[in-house]
Write a structure and sequence with these properties.
CATH topology of the domain at 1-118: Beta Polymerase, domain 2
CATH class of the domain at 1-118: Alpha Beta
Structural class: alpha+beta
Radius of gyration: 34 Å
Helix content: 55-70%
Order of helices and strands: EEEHHEEEEHHHHH
Number of helices: 7
């Protein structure tokens, strides 16, 4: 579905229009091939160059096709099971700024609903502002994951499957964020080179702040991944200790119960045995068996096997 917006720097809200007007902002949400065909006809961009905007695994990069610049970006999302980022394509043409999303992009829709001073004719500044919102979204999501990690930094006495699942999920989220942030930093460095886009001085300051923010998010993401790996090693040690403790306990109990089993097995044989004719034989054997068992318990307790 394609929506078209128009706004000058003096206007307050974005106004929705019905036709492709030079200087307008084109937003294709829940985009499909029909939407890409309309955009290709309006911008004269080959539709084959637009198909990557529907690829949910596309990595951030920038392409320069004729006089058009295509930005393939990823931002945090919860739409896809197993995917924590989604594709967002921004296209800067001579007449339009175009945003293509395979889903509904909350970042774009929140920007449209806001009372920003940006105008649709400020194409480069609008692109930078969207990238800044995406970076802030990454930062907020990384903070939420960090809060979850801090809650698990004190390892529990017993490691259960839920702890491992939460830790693994957080690591996967951060890995996907890092996989998107690194190419996004390279994309911003390419933009800063000035080969494809010309920026005003104020826009350059915004671009520099944006590069710093992306780099900081990337560093925080890497630090949190290391924290998760350290926690996972701690969980592994705790789990191994629990298993070893259980094996020691079961071995000690087995040995203790083996002593009376051996005595009972020997005195169950149909051969001449000591004390077999004595009236106190049973009591004596029980006492000897109990004594050996007590000695075994004392030894195991001393060695911390029980």
């Amino acid at each position: 579905m394609i929506e078209l917006y128009w706004k000058t720097a003096r206007d307050s809200p974005f106004s929705q229009i019905n036709d492709f007007r030079p200087g307008s902002w084109v937003y294709a949400k829940d985009a499909n091939l029909e939407d890409l065909t309309r955009i290709a006809e309006a911008t004269h961009i080959d539709i084959n160059d637009l198909r990557d905007s529907l690829d949910k695994y596309e990595l951030p990069r920038m392409e320069h096709i004729d006089d058009n610049v295509l930005f393939f970006i990823r931002h945090p999302t919860n739409y896809e099971l197993g995917l924590y980022t989604e594709t967002l394509t921004m296209i800067l043409t001579h007449s339009y700024v175009i945003a293509i999303s395979p889903h509904r992009s909350e970042i774009i829709e929140n920007l449209i609903a806001s009372n920003t001073s940006l105008g649709t004719t400020q194409k480069s500044k609008l692109i930078l502002h969207i990238l800044l919102k995406i970076t802030q979204d990454y930062t907020n999501n990384i903070k939420r994951v960090r809060a979850s990690i801090l809650g698990a930094e004190e390892p529990p006495k017993v490691v259960d499957s839920h702890s491992i699942v939460v830790l693994t999920k957080n690591e996967e989220i951060l890995n996907q964020y890092l996989t998107s942030l690194v190419p996004m930093r390279n994309l911003l460095e390419t933009m800063a080179s000035g080969r494809y886009l010309n920026f005003y001085e104020a826009d350059l300051d915004l671009l520099e702040d944006l590069m710093i923010a992306v780099h900081q998010s990337e560093d925080v993401c890497s630090v949190n991944i290391k924290s998760i790996r350290s926690l996972r090693d701690s969980y592994h040690i705790i789990f191994t200790n629990d298993v070893n403790r259980t094996i020691k306990l079961l071995t000690a109990v087995t040995i203790i119960f083996t002593i009376p089993t051996i005595v009972a097995s020997i005195y169950g044989m149909n051969v001449a045995l000591p004390f077999q004719g004595k009236a106190y034989a049973f009591v004596l054997l029980m006492a000897i068996t109990l004594a050996f068992s007590i000695v075994a318990v004392i030894l195991f307790r001393k060695n911390r096997w029980l």
